[in-house]
Amino acid sequence: MPAPRKIRCAVARIADHGGHVYTVELKPETQVPAFRPGQFLHFALDEYVPSGFWPESRVFSVASNPTERDRLLICYSVNGVFTKRMEQEMQVGSEVWVKLPYGDFVIEAHPEVVLMAGGTGISAFSAFIGELSGNRGGRVHLYYGVRNPTLLLFQEEFDAVLGQAPCFHATYCLEHGTVESVKPFSGRVKVRSGILSADFPVEDGFRASGTIFYLSGPPAMLKVLSNALLTLGAAPERIRVDAWE
Description:
Elements: E1 5-16, E2 21-28, E3 40-44, E4 57-61, E5 72-77, H1 81-89, E6 95-102, E7 112-118, H2 126-130, E8 139-146, H3 155-164, E9 168-174, E10 189-193, H4 199-203, E11 211-216, H5 219-231, E12 239-242
């Protein structure tokens, strides 16, 4: 893995999804080092001075595709003082700092992959999903839970993958509301009401010992899903958790 590098970035775009949830596109001053889907970066609002210490920062999964070395995407929800500063201080054109890559939570192409994401935890999976192609065998099933349809991040990008990669399936779990425009993709995408549940992969036939479960999202969700998957018979070494908070 390349050594982490510190890079100044300009804020190129901020997408406000409502509910204090945002996607931020960054334009790095130099090409970013190679990274793998699932890895994260450290993000700092304050100026980094090479002769001094790294400023206060927070970690965010890199949501952009590893082949796009001239841009970075992160997603965040306002939860604490630092992310409140991000919401209040960042605007297009702002300068920020990142250092990357970090992390051992790397999404790999096993024969059967289950991705379970809550909220902005989807950002740990978007790069992996974006690389799926029609040549891949096996199944990749995304179970993605959010409070309401406006918070379904990357839905258009996932639709594009569904259209070209028969291995990819998606289940959107909504606590409130419905999704009006979901293309069927030969039955490979569906919407469920309520919170994300570990029962869903079992219902969809993921019982083989070769299934790898990747979990990303709020800590309470990770604990509930991990324990439920163990109860349902998943081996501990096949449950991989991205503890991003």
